[in-house]
UniProtKB/TrEMBL annotation:
Protein name per Swiss-Prot or TrEMBL: Phage tail protein
Domain of life: Bacteria
Length: 34
């Protein structure tokens, strides 16, 4: 169960990083275009 939790946490943090990266990229692109 501990291993499963660790896997879930790492997957969650990776997903959060991915979403944050996409949002940051969109904001960055919009900022440059404007």
């Amino acid at each position: 169960e501990a291993t499963f939790t660790a896997i879930r946490w790492s997957a969650l943090s990776q997903e959060r990083l991915l979403v944050g990266g996409i949002l940051g990229h969109q904001i960055f692109s919009t900022f440059i275009l404007v």
